[in-house]
Amino acid sequence: MIRRREFITGLGGAAAWPLAAQAQQRERMRRIGVLVAFASDDPAGQDENAAFLQGLQQFGWTVGRNVRIDYRWAAGNPESYREYAMELIERAPDVVVAGGAPATAALQRISRTLPIVFANTGDPVGGGLVTSLARQGGNTTGFALPEYGFSGKLLELLKEIAPRVTRVAVLRDAAIQSGPAYLAAIQAVAPSFGVELSPVGLRDPEEIERGITAFARGPNDGLIMTASAAAGNHRNLIIALAARHKLPAVYPFRFDAVSGGLISYGVDLPDQWRLAAGYVDRILKGEKPADLPVQAPTKYELVINLKTAKALGLDVPATVYARANEVIE
Questions:
Q1: Cα-Cα end-to-end distance for the chain
Q2: Antiparallel, parallel or unpaired: β 140-144 and 116-121
Q3: Hey, what CATH topology would domain 148-267+301-328 get?
């Protein structure tokens, strides 16, 4: 016969056991791999990582307590993407986060089962990374960059801040799918602005310097840098060349204007990494990438560097100034 006090104690222990087991399960160390497009000392990559860690913390994931993160910083190098993707997957992570299309593709070539969450990726359907945005059906999901037509707005903005421009160099990475697509979108609207375009490659610093130097002729020239890992990693060179040749230039991201570029308009990239942390949380809690739709960006930012504008002798129109999310003095 079981005495009443012992029986109640036994029930209490039995009831408490699942709670203790759940707590232990929550605290089990999980592993995340992160393949970043930037170099490890690049402030842009550090800002994205800070946003990612902030997002994880909001969902209760703390590095060293219940999650471990392995980083690889590819610095836009195609060989590094392949090498680092293999290294990360060999560590048997629960999920991998990829910055951009090249990183995502490198991971997919090694595994079609490991959950992959991407951020800052252009046209994931056209690039073959997913079959559709809503129900992609594979091991990959994430947060995409705007449709290619968005790049036409960069030319519109360039003409607004520098109306005299009639010739524009368009920096695009011809080695990736988005490069020609961005150029085509700008070409589609160029006639309506009375602008002649000249594509410039981004293969390496020598090609960039040679292309911009050959293009620049006089006061009616301008420059547009389209989004790519190569452009981001070479932005300091591009910005310096634009300053040297007195080229009004429009860039796709905030870090370009912070680095000295005249004006930028595009997606808030750290915000995409913060959102990616939410998908990582859901996957770690049992959801599948195939059930998480690819999301289009919703947060954009216009940043003006007034110091650069003054160096170029440009007066920022009030209409542009009023729309700015940030002005760098």
A1: 83
A2: parallel
A3: Rossmann fold (3.40.50)
Partnered with residue 17 across adjacent β-strands are none
What's the chain's average pLDDT? 90
The domain spans of the chain are 29-145+269-298, 148-267+301-328
Q: Are 141 and 294 in contact (CB under 8 A)?
A: yes
Query: How confident is the model at residue 136, as a pLDDT?
Result: 72
Chain centre distance of CA 171? 18
Give DSSP secondary structure letters for 119-143. EEES-TTTTTS-S-SS---SSEEEE
Helices (H), 101-201: 101-110, 152-161, 178-189
Cα–Cα distance between 31 and 68 in angstroms, integer?
A: 5
| Burial group, residue 146, by CB count within 10 angstroms (0-12, 13-18, 19+) | middle
Is residue 311 pLDDT above 90, yes or no?
A: yes
Tens digit of each residue's pLDDT (9 = 90 or more) over 226-238? 999 899 999 999 9
Angle at 41 between CA 170 and CA 97, to 5 degrees: 80
> Which residue is it, tokens 């980083």?
71
Q: If 0-12 CB within 10 Å is exposed, 13-18 middle and 19+ buried, where does residue 86 land? A: middle
Q: Does residue 9 carry a pLDDT above 80? A: no
Q: How confident is the model at residue 218 (pLDDT cuts 50, 70, 90)?
A: confident
Q: How far is CA 184 from the centre of its chain?
A: 21
The reported pTM is 0.86
Q: Which CATH number among 3.40.50.300, 3.40.50.2300, 1.10.10.60, 3.40.50.620 corresponds to the domain 29-145+269-298?
A: 3.40.50.2300
* pLDDT attached to residue 30: 97
Residues counted in the chain? 329
Give the separation between CA 151 and CA 180, rounded to whole angstroms: 12
